[in-house]
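Re-run with default settings, no changes from the original entry. Doing this only to confirm the output is reproducible before filing.
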Amino acid sequence: MKHLAAYLLLGIGGNTSPSADDIKGVLSAVGIDADDDRLEKLISELKGKDIQELISEGSTKLASVPSGGGGGGGAAAPAAAAGGGAAAAEEKPAEKEPEKEEESDEDMGFGLFD
């Protein structure tokens, strides 16, 4: 993913066909070592292709993928039992348990470009 991001950044900057050295330069500028095997695979798959056309094709393919949607209606609330309404009203509400504090998910053990 980091190789593709660097490739796209170079494309935005005007370099329509970035080389492996160009991508390595972008990655090394932010302190990331490039994986030569993945980099060569990326360049070979994108060689001679217009990145804007690939993005457009991918967007149309993603538009046809179902994304979950409405699901279904919720269940109806249960009806109160006959004659039991008064007894239920007399009971005092249950005490709430103190909420547990959730741990922070800020870092999650990895960085964006690791």
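Residues 51-63 form the longest helix (13 residues). The CA atoms of residues 91 and 97 lie 18 Å apart.
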